[in-house]
Design brief:
- The complex is a heterodimer of chains A (about 400) and B (about 200).
- Chain A has two domains: about 80 residues; about 280 residues, no CATH class.
- The mean pLDDT of chain A is about 90.
- In chain A, strands 1-2 form a two-stranded antiparallel sheet.
- Chain A contains 17 helices and two strands.
- In chain A, helix 13 runs antiparallel to helix 14.
- Chain A has about 400 residues and is mainly α.
- In chain B, strands 1-2 form a two-stranded antiparallel sheet.
- In chain B, strand 1 and strand 2 form a beta hairpin.
- In chain B, helix 2 runs antiparallel to helix 6, helix 2 packs parallel to helix 7 and helix 6 crosses helix 7.
- Classes of the chains: A mainly alpha (about 400), B mainly alpha (about 200).
- Chains A and B meet through helix 4 of A and helix 1 and helix 9 of B.
Chain lengths: ~400, ~200
């Protein structure tokens, strides 16, 4: 139990009795209703606020006190939870009203052009994977950035950087991406309790990892000790946060799938991160399958989603994306496919909690100079000579 | 910069986050600045005690008041907490009647435009107030740390070097405003430059 937080709540509850009407209200209320857990306390405070405001106007001090009790309760629950990775502190959700206008503006600059780019060449024998790219108006994107560049939200910077980077305008794209990375690569992250903020941080970290590649990691390791492991831990952490705070909505499908991919692509590094004796492929089996079940729960059907299930099954049966003569993990593991899915699920929760502790202990923080270096290396690895001005 | 301010910066960010949800847009900027001056007045009122850590022995050398830095910092924090309790009841009076008084190197009246702008929803003013809060939160804590180093037997210049990694020429460090500026330039400024993330619009 966090003593400071606990003390804060107890103190504020004690102060409630300084409001003259509270004692009588509480006596009557507690005879009618049982006050249980957080929701019970919230209901008590809300009913008291309503009751009091019908009789007289609340003083500013009383208003602050009632808000403060909510705040302390949320803080106490978060501080004392054994499963912090999934908990959302309602008082720490930032005001994101301006994002609605941003999304409308972003939709308005889409040109309607659609193209497809093949990815992961050679991953499967008979299946090709494509991503769809939606065209955006370069001038419009430039104007959009000008309008929102000081809004300090990773969602804005991540979304704007994506088409610029896809258009291979790396110098401008990475400069915008860097602004999002500064939030992702540092604790405390103001957006930790915002699903859009966390998802944008996960996406930005995932993208910089692609831009750096193995060579980029090696180059940065010369200056920043343990960079690769720290970045991989953060990607795992943010993707896990998206999964466990989104409660199975559409965002978690991509998060599961990307987490599977990162664990598979860096399996040697994840052997060290998980600890001795853990096979990262089990996480892949689990995450791909859970991505598939999340898709079906959201009524999403079709080849890309069924492929998630096949990926999981093939890895279980053959230890690879491509069917072969080996017995895969079906032969080597003393567990069924679904038992491995469950094992991976539990293990990922434990690992993300462990990484969160490191994050909260500032062990995964990067300074602005280090982030500048990361982006410089990413740019160097990807730059092509262009004479673009703006984002066009 | 040798000293670790991550906990202090995290505390400051968490406070800003809490105040953002607690106060309305029109009152937020003023509340944050009240807190800045609450801390600054408390530091000013205990300035003699802060200076008292740097005592000379009768026959040369510096007096050692505590066995290590941590003990000294705990001592300074206790003194600060006691002082802040005495500051709290008179703070509003000080800010309304003596708003032009310099507290360290700034005055409350100097922020009048920022308070007005923030209350009207000007995001640049809100950000400036938030940065000011973080800057002085770290700066005033560093002053307590500087004093704690002094009690371990270091001179004012050596204590500063211990925190910043920079040795400066002999200079007068007897006034709050001067010390604040030196520590701000050598420690707080560079630290925030490397670690500060501005917040989104309120």
């Amino acid at each position: 139990m966090d003593e400071t937080v606990d003390k804060g709540l107890q103190l504020s509850l004690g102060l409630l009795f300084s409001i003259p009407e509270f004692e009588d209200f509480y006596k009557n209320y507690s005879q009618e209703k049982k006050i249980e857990a957080k929701n019970g306390l919230f209901l008590l405070i809300e009913s008291f606020r309503e009751n009091l405001s019908q009789k007289r106007e609340l003083s500013p001090e009383e208003d602050i006190l009632l808000k403060h009790i909510f705040e302390c309760t949320e803080n106490e629950i978060y501080a004392n939870s054994a499963l912090k990775i999934s908990i959302i502190n309602k008082f720490q959700i930032p005001n994101e009203d301006f994002l609605k206008e941003f999304q409308t503006d972003f939709q308005a600059i889409k040109t309607g052009d659609l193209s497809f780019e093949e990815i992961n060449k050679g991953k499967y024998k008979t299946v090709k994977e494509y991503i769809s790219l939606h065209g955006v108006d370069g001038k419009g994107l430039s104007e959009l950035y000008e309008k929102y560049k000081d809004f300090n939200h990773p969602y804005i910077y991540d979304l704007i950087s994506e088409p610029i980077i896809q258009a291979k305008n790396y110098s401008n794209g990475i400069a915008v991406l860097k602004k999002s990375l500064k939030y992702a690569l540092r604790y405390p992250n103001y957006f930790w309790h915002s699903l859009r903020g966390v998802d944008a941080c996960a996406s930005s970290l995932y993208r910089i990892q692609f831009l750096l590649g193995y060579d980029g990691f090696r180059e940065i390791e010369k200056s920043i000790e343990n960079f690769e492991i720290k970045l991989l831990k953060l990607i795992f952490l943010y993707l896990s946060r998206v999964i466990y705070m989104s409660e199975g909505n559409l965002l978690s499908i991509d998060a599961y799938s990307n987490r599977a991919r990162i664990v598979r692509d860096y399996s040697y590094q994840f052997m060290g991160i998980f600890g001795i004796g853990v096979i990262p492929d089990i996480q892949y089996i689990s995450d791909k399958y859970l991505a598939y079940t999340t898709a079906t729960k959201n009524n999403l059907v079709g080849q890309p989603f069924i492929q998630l299930m096949w990926d999981s099954m093939k890895m279980y049966r053959h230890g690879s994306h491509i069917p072969n003569n080996s017995g895969g993990y079906q032969e080597t593991e003393d567990a069924t496919w679904m038992e491995l899915v469950q094992r991976g699920h539990l293990r990922s929760i434990n690992l993300s909690e462990k990484i969160l502790k490191e994050f909260e202990n500032f062990e995964l923080n990067f300074t602005n100079s280090e982030i500048d270096l990361i982006c410089e290396v990413a740019l160097k690895k990807n730059i092509i000579t262009t004479h673009n001005s703006g984002f066009a | 910069m040798r000293i670790d301010l991550r906990n202090q910066l995290a505390e400051g960010m968490n406070n800003l986050q809490a105040w953002r949800s607690r106060y309305s847009k029109s009152e937020y900027g003023e509340k944050v600045l009240l807190n800045v001056f609450y801390r600054k007045y408390s530091t000013l009122f205990m300035w003699d005690k802060i200076q008292n850590s740097f005592q000379k022995k009768m026959f040369g050398g510096n007096k050692v008041l505590w066995s290590d830095f941590n003990e000294g910092f705990r001592e300074m924090m206790t003194l600060y907490q006691n002082q802040s309790m005495k500051t709290q009841p008179i703070l509003l009076q000080l800010l309304s009647e003596k708003s032009s008084n310099m507290v360290g190197s700034v005055s409350y009246a100097g922020f009048a435009d920022k308070i007005k702008g923030a209350s009207q929803g000007n995001n640049a003013d809100i950000e400036e107030i938030e940065f000011t809060y973080l800057h002085y939160l770290l700066n005033d804590q560093l002053i307590l740390m500087w004093s704690a180093f002094g009690g371990t037997g270091l001179s004012k210049i050596d204590a500063l070097a211990q925190m910043s990694g920079v040795i400066i020429a002999e200079t007068d460090m007897s006034e709050y405003g001067k010390v604040e500026n030196i520590i701000g330039q050598l420690c707080t400024g560079p630290y925030l430059h490397e670690n500060y993330n501005p917040l989104p619009p309120l």
